[in-house]
Amino acid sequence: MAMSENEQRQLRELEAQLAGQRKLAALARRLESAGADIAQRRLSVLWAAGGSIGLMLVGAAVAVHSSALGAAAVVVLAGTLLLVGVAGMVVEAVGARRGHRLAHGHPPRWPSR
């Protein structure tokens, strides 16, 4: 059965809309993964900064033979590990929850301003 000119035009329009939706879906996936990458980079920077400060304090404590600087170094290093560890778990939990919601057909909830 041959399609009329109008039906062919409608079919081309629908195909163009579907192609646009595929592009939109691909863009949404890229943006979502970019958001996770940014969070991981921030955690890495925080971990590196805290570790660097802690190691500098350790070096200073050894150089001047100060137990107070050594205690401060331990506090900074332990605090950095705890902070980055908890933040990493939160980032992973949010990412897993978002992935679970998307897998079950629910649209993502955007944070309110």
Average of pLDDT: 79
Question: What is the gyration radius calculated from CA atoms?
Answer: 26 Å
Percent of residues in helical segments?
A: over 70%
Tally of strands? 0
Report on the architecture of this protein.
The chain is mainly alpha-helical. It has a domain at 34-106. 86% of the residues lie in helices and 0% in strands. It has 2 helices and no strands. It has helices at 5-64, 67-103. The protein is rod-shaped.
Write the layout of secondary structure elements.
Blueprint: H1 5-64, H2 67-103
State the main characteristics.
single chain, 113 residues, 0% strand
Short description:
This protein is mainly alpha-helical. 86% of the residues lie in helices and 0% in strands.
